[in-house]
Every structure is written in C-alpha cells, then in structure tokens.
Amino acid sequence: MSDLTLGRGNAGAATRSASDLYRAVWRWHFYAGLLVLPFMITLAITGALYLFRDEIEAIVHSDLKRVVAQETVAAPSAMVTAALAAYPGTAIKFTDPPTPVSSAEITVAVPSGEKLAVYVDPYTARVLGSLPDRGTIMWTVRYLHSLKYFGSLARMLIEIAAGWSILLVATGIYLWWPRRQTGGVVTVRGTPKRRVFWRDTHAVTGIFVGFFIVFLAITGMPWSGVWGAKINEWANGNNFGYPAGVRVAVPMSDEHLDHVAKTSWSLEQAQVPQSPAHDHGTSPIGLDRAVAIFNDLGLHRGYAVNIPATPEGVYTGSVYPDDLSRQRVVHLDQYTGKPLIDMSYADYGPLGKWLEWGINVHMGQEFGFANQLVLLAACIGIILLAVSAGVMWWKRRPKGSLGVPPMPSDRRVFRGLIAILAVGGILFPLVGLSLIVMLVMDWIGLRLMRARTA
What we know:
The chain is of the alpha+beta class. 54% of the residues lie in helices and 12% in strands.
C-alpha cells in the first residue's frame, strides 16, 4: 500500500471520527432541548418578572403598600392592635416598613387556620387591607417559577431541567465551535424564511447566554427538592450557616427558623433558641421594647419580627436586604431582651457565603439595577434561544418524523459520550435517573425503527 493511499485512509478515518462525534453530541443536544426548553421558557418569563418584584408590587398593590410619610410613627403594638381589631386572630409576625413611604405588615393567624398579611399605615395605625400570607402577585410569580403550586414531582422536574440545561450548553458550545464556516459564529445569515437564519440565531444567542444559563442553573439548584435539600442539610449540619458556638449554652427548640420567619436559604434548617426559664410571674418585654432593641442593634429597615407564641419562645428579628453584608438574624430572650444569637453574613461559613451570594445575584439583588438589567437581557436571550430552536427543528424535521439526529456509525463514540454524561448523573442523582430513562427510550425507539424498515 502506498504512503498516499495510507494517508488518505487515515484522513478518511479522522473525518468519520469527527463526524461521528458531531452526530453523538448533536443527538444528545437534541434530547436535552426536548427536556429543557419548555421549562426554560417558563423559568425565563417568571424569572424576568420576579427581578422587578419591588417595582411591580409597588404598582399592583399600591393601595396596600404605599403610604404618605409623616413625622410621628405609631407604636408597633398599636399597629398590631388595629390589625387584630379588623381581622381577629393571633398576631405572629410584625414587619417593619422598609421605606418611609411603605406600610407595615402584620401576619395574623385567623381561627380558620389560614394566615393573613394585614397592611397598616405606620403613622396612623389605620388598617389598609389584607391579602393571604404570601399572597401578593410576586409571591404567585415566585411559586410559578419554582413550580411549587404543582407539588414535589414538578419541583423534581425543575431539578432535572437545571442539570440538563448545563448539558445543553456544553453540547451547544461544541456544535457552535467554528469549523471553517463564514457565518453563524457571531453573525446571522439569511432571512427568517430560511432555516439557516434560525440556526445562526440559535447558535449566536446560545453562545452569548450560555454562561448565564449555567450560572442560573447552578445557583437555582439550592431550591430543588432532592439535591438542594441534601446540600441544605449538609451545610447546616456542618455549621456552614451558623457562627462559631451558635449552639453552645443556648437551649434549642425543635422549631426551625424558616417556620417562624422568612430567612435565607442556608439558614432554613437552623433551630430557633428558647428563652431560658425565668421566675414565675416575670413579664415579657413586649413587642414595642423588642422592636426598640432591634433598632438599637442596627437591623436594616424592613426587618421581620416573629412574636413568640409560647412562654419559651423568642423574639426573632430577621432581614435580608439587597446588600449581603446587612443580612442578619437576632434572637432575643422575650423576658430580658438579651440577644441569645446574633448572626450575620460575616458569620456564615464558606459554603453559606457562596450560596447566599449566588442566590442574591440569581434574584437580581447583589449589584442593584445593573444586576436586574443584565439578567433581564439573559432571560430575553433564553426565550429567543428556545423559540429559535423550535422553529429550526420544525423547518428541518422530515414529514411525519420527530427528526431525531442520526446515531453515529461508530457506537464507541456514543458510549464515550454517555460515560462523560454519567459523571453529571452522579453529581445530580435525578439527572442521572433521567439519563437512564432517556437511554432506554432511545434504545426502544431505535428497535422500533429497525423493525419498521426490516
């Protein structure tokens, strides 16, 4: 055999190998898209809305949340009394007005077992109205974003979608990588009537928003039902969410912080301390004194105060402003007003700090309005990415077929790619389980196709 023939053979083998790898990657990029794109559209729309939650709620709920600033502020206890007079029940939380033109919010447990958010003018103690607790339009959007309305199974699907979106970006980068083409790298060719226009739009948009997809997927994982719950449990169990010595010489209850007040993700499982036993007849300090202590301690405006319901309970002040350094949780002995625990972002361990920073950026808070605008652009890009993928697939697919990209001729390439994907499946168990399901479905589909053509 001549050197020329041998050279051509090697070149042909290399070309076939590259083609097989491209087909394998394309096939799994297609499968990832089938799983992820419907979720990505929903997540992008609801996420874009939630970025501007304060601005939207100030408009939609202006009758409940906006007041005229005055000089004299009513006592917190007077606001609670007014709220209970309008909506009889038990006051369980008082939320300080975040701005001089914001109303106070009193959370009331009514006899039916439901909770109401009662809005009160902090200057006149006039009741402005009520909503179900966490019943504002932005809480609705937040629950739609996490699929919380649809149960634990739907939340597992979100976790699977997040894992597969990372796969989608990784395979997409490989497919986008320039291979001597003159367009479709950073420019778009053709017109909307042509498939190449949608292919280039999809590729160019994907390469610009891919980083944001991966970042949002990773920082959103802490809210997931399986992976997030385990990380949450591990982080708290290793004191990554607590300052050093937080459990030392402090009687702890079985109540968790997230049950009594909205808290940061990494502290949801933190236990609430109990007020130490006092002499019989000792009177609690009361809400007004507790609020005064929180103000003296310098808690950021807009903090929430849970009102103890038992003799062993505590006054818990918690606040989670845009500035991470101002996050803070303080538990007061309800009889002496002494701080039992005072923790802030600076007290978190390395994992807790990283998680909180990622979540703060994910929610558009960490870098102010610029954070909101950048993520809004990313959400628009994600929607465009999903729409262009759908149009491109519709134009490409053969009539009467799903249009799955062909299998590589060399199955070893396909198996190698699966081995790489399996690593992600180990890191994210639900993603690994879905990978197995997809492999089985793919195998069944190939068997049925061969049976039809035999």
